[in-house]
Design goal:
The protein has 435 residues and is of the alpha/beta class. The protein has 14 helices and 14 strands. Strand 4, helix 3 and strand 5 form a beta-alpha-beta unit.
Length: 435
């Protein structure tokens, strides 16, 4: 396929983006994968001067591409005056170094690109810890970006390395020590998260986790549901740090909603591992909202990628994973396609499988809220009779459950029908309802 030159005037790092098309390994259209890689490169503020799909019939261990194609791409890199080349594939350290020599430019593979983006976007201490751990785990096997002084020898004493220890050996040891330290700090994060979950269970609101392919509109939906102002941009990986808010569902039922990091095809295993503390929020959720960009021609393949990552996240003990698809961005469809999709969604909404919405315009949001309430509304229902002076108990029931019925008799007694989470029901039955 011929390359497409792109004219840019922004003084950024000039780059070429290449998607190696291994047709036997993916059913996704190569051009769509290329466009996604270009989006990732631009998310890193690279000035994409050229982009090309390169068929790979047989992998060359030293360079991935055959020698003729390497030379052809070198000409493209020179023509674009590129300082960096993004290869939308996982490269071995040897392949990365050999391509850098052949093209006289910095080479970034898919994993390295995503890690760089995450490194820029992480804002919280936890997010930065997770990204650094993933980056070190990635660099440990290659030592090519941060650790460029590989061939020198130096002597030393004590912790700085013994006589004759090569710099690469010292750097690997320093990385290993830092990884151990980071894992310890993240273990503390997991412990803290566990304590927070136990605290939330004392006020047992159901939890809802938003997941989806990056740029599917999760943060826009989160803002629409909660009235928050979380960063929501038309940008890959705009959200990295988990945000939680309490919302009120129809009939006053409270719930906690968590916005999570976006998923992507071939998500580096280093990131899945290091973000496990964050992804545990998904495993603990009572309901998962799988937000899909239903207007994207790639929506089905993206959904499969999200489902593949979800399978790597263990569900909490004794908790069945319940997923509701949210077909977002229906406002971007033409009228005919939108009407057809809404008719299809109507059947799936009745079965609790999918709801069609536009988080941008608000269309379908109330239907989504009603469906969420119905899906998490499986707690035991009880009937309580309260005396006129028990206003505090009535307020507690509204705060901690979902009141489905209320009647007042001539004597002023209130009969309340309410659904309570098992933990809240236990507290009520023990008489500790005001604690």
């Amino acid at each position: 396929m011929a390359s497409k030159l792109v004219d840019h005037t922004v003084p950024l790092i000039r780059a070429v983006v290449i998607h190696p098309d291994r047709r036997s390994e993916t059913d996704r259209a190569a051009q769509e994968r290329l466009e996604e890689a270009v989006g990732l490169a631009r998310a890193l503020d690279l000035d994409v001067r050229a982009e090309e799909v390169v068929p790979v019939r047989k992998v060359t261990p030293a360079t991935l591409f055959g020698s003729g194609k390497v030379e052809e791409l070198a000409a493209l890199v020179r023509a674009a005056e590129a300082e960096a080349v993004v290869v939308d594939d996982q490269l071995t350290p040897v392949q990365q170094r050999n391509l850098e020599k052949a093209w006289d430019a910095k080479v970034i593979d898919r994993t390295g690109l995503i890690l760089e983006i995450f490194g820029r976007r992480a804002r919280t201490k936890e997010g930065r810890l997770q990204v650094e751990l993933a980056r070190l785990d990635y660099e440990r096997s290659r030592l090519v970006r941060t650790w460029t002084h590989l061939e020198r020898q130096r002597g030393g004493t004590g912790s700085t390395g013994g006589p004759g220890e090569t710099q690469i050996e010292l750097d690997r040891r320093l990385i290993a020590d830092r990884i151990v330290k980071l894992k310890g700090e993240l273990e503390e994060v997991r412990r803290t998260r566990g304590l927070h979950r136990k605290q939330r269970q004392k006020v047992p609101y159901p939890t809802i986790a938003l997941v989806g392919y990056t740029n599917a509109g999760k943060s826009t939906l989160f803002n629409r549901l909660t009235g928050s102002e979380v960063l929501a941009k038309d940008l890959l990986f705009a959200t990295l740090d988990t945000t939680q808010r309490t919302i009120r569902l129809p009939q006053g039922r409270p719930a906690i909603v968590a916005d999570t990091v976006g998923f992507i095809s071939d998500l580096p295993h280093e990131l899945v591992e290091s973000f496990r503390a964050t992804l545990e929020e998904v495993g603990e959720a009572d309901l998962i909202l799988h937000v899909r960009d239903i207007a994207s021609p790639d929506t089905d393949a993206q959904a499969k990628d999200v489902e593949a990552v979800l399978k790597q996240i263990p569900a909490a003990e004794d908790k069945q994973r319940r997923v509701l698809e949210v077909w977002n961005k229906i406002d971007l469809l033409d009228e005919g396609a939108r009407e057809l999709l809404l008719a299809q969604a109507e059947r799936k909404t009745a079965d609790g499988e999918a709801v069609a919405v536009s988080a941008w315009t608000g269309q379908g949001i109330e239907r989504l809220r009603e469906t969420i309430a119905r899906l998490i509304d499986d707690e035991p229902e009880i009937e309580v009779v309260l005396e006129p002076h028990q206003g505090e108990a009535l307020a507690w029931l509204y705060e901690n459950g979902r009141v489905t019925g209320r009647e007042v008799d001539e004597a002023g007694r209130t009969t309340v029908t309410v659904r309570l989470h098992p933990a809240a029901l236990g507290r009520w039955e023990r008489g500790s309802r005001y604690k």
